[in-house]
């Protein structure tokens, strides 16, 4: 598999003058690959000899490309890999941010993009969630998710009581500060910080991890990817709404009567990796080097 048309999405906060974007375009052009860019980049590309095409609509840009290239951090990668998944396109990332756990290359390894022309890469298929928040039988929010869903008390320092049920009728109850439902990709994000298991990213498993549980018997639970979950929660005084965050963004307070429905998405994120599988090597190197809590970078372009 070789690629000929790449849609490039830089994070404007990390690449304000399109410095890294220009590098990527040059390297791709040297390898016979055309670049697609958004119209806002046009003033920075005055060399008409470069094989660049500009688009005013990002959906069309992705649909007409062979793959998506993200220049930024993990948050940017999450956003555009989800958009690419809806068009059945793979995505590759170059890390301009901090942790960059989802990225194939660092900014100093940009020349590695030449592998896209030779087919010297692999495509990992990553499980996604489709989540819906329901209130009085109506959907008030829905979102596709690559990493995780965090449900917590809407008031700081308030213990909440959560119930977790499935279509089979199984029920778990948690007294905790919150609960994290993660995909295998999300197992190395907030779930990991809360003591959840590390799961190989191409697996098809759902992990449920409580945040600061108030019971020694309540630890992480692994479920089949076919499990359809329903989460509800409320504080002990039954007065505080519940706080929901999906993929580190779109945080919102929802009424305590609402339910969060989670199921495996029919879409699959396709993440391009260059070179051998180095998942555990990268896990150890990046987490030890960063010294930070391993959450996704949520700064989007």
Q: Tell me the quaternary state.
A: single chain
Largest beta-sheet characterization: 12 strands, mixed
CATH class descriptor name of the largest domain? Mainly Beta
Q: If helices are DSSP runs of H or I spanning 4 or more residues, what is the number of helices?
A: 6
Shape: elongated
Amino- and carboxy-terminal Cα gap: 29 Å
The fraction of residues assigned to DSSP E strands is 35-45%
Tally of extended strands?
A: 18
The CATH topology of the largest domain comes to Tumour Suppressor Smad4
C-alpha-based Rg, rounded: 20 Å
Q: What is the CATH superfamily of the largest domain?
A: Probable inorganic polyphosphate/atp-NAD kinase, domain 2
CATH architecture of the largest domain: Sandwich
**What sequence of helices (H) and strands (E) makes up the elements?**
EHEEHEHEEHEEEEEEHEEEEEEH
Mean pLDDT across the residues is 88
Uncertain stretches of 5 or more adjacent residues:
293-301
Helical fraction: 10-25%
Into how many domains do the coordinates divide? 2
Structural class: alpha/beta
């Amino acid at each position: 598999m070789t690629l000929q048309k790449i849609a490039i999405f830089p994070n404007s906060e990390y690449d304000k003058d399109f410095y890294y974007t220009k590098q990527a375009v040059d390297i791709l052009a040297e390898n016979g690959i055309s670049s697609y860019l958004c119209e806002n980049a046009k003033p920075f590309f005055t060399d008409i000899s470069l094989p660049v095409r500009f688009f005013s609509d990002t959906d069309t840009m992705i649909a007409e490309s062979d793959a998506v290239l993200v220049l930024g951090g993990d948050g940017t990668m999450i956003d555009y890999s989800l958009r690419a998944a809806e068009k059945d396109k793979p995505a590759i990332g170059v890390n301009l941010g901090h942790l960059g756990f989802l990225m194939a290359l660092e900014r100093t390894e940009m020349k590695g993009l030449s592998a896209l022309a030779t087919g010297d890469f692999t495509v990992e298929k990553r499980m996604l969630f489709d989540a819906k928040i329901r209130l009085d039988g109506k959907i008030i929010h829905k979102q596709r998710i690559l990493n995780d869903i965090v449900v917590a008390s809407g008031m700081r320092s308030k213990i909440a009581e959560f119930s977790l049920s499935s279509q089979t009728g199984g029920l778990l109850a948690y007294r905790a500060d919150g609960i994290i439902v993660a995909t295998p990709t999300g197992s190395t994000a907030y779930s990991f910080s809360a003591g959840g298991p590390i799961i190989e990213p191409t697996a098809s498993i759902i992990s449920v991890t409580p945040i600061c549980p108030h019971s020694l018997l309540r630890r992480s639970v692994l479920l089949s990817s076919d499990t359809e979950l329903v989460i509800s929660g409320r504080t002990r005084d039954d007065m505080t709404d519940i706080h929901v965050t999906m993929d580190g963004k779109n945080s919102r307070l929802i009424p305590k009567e609402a339910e969060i429905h989670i199921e495996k998405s029919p879409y699959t994120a396709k993440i391009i990796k260059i070179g051998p599988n180095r998942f555990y090597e990268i896990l150890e190197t990046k987490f030890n080097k960063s010294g930070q809590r391993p959450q996704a970078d949520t700064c989007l372009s």
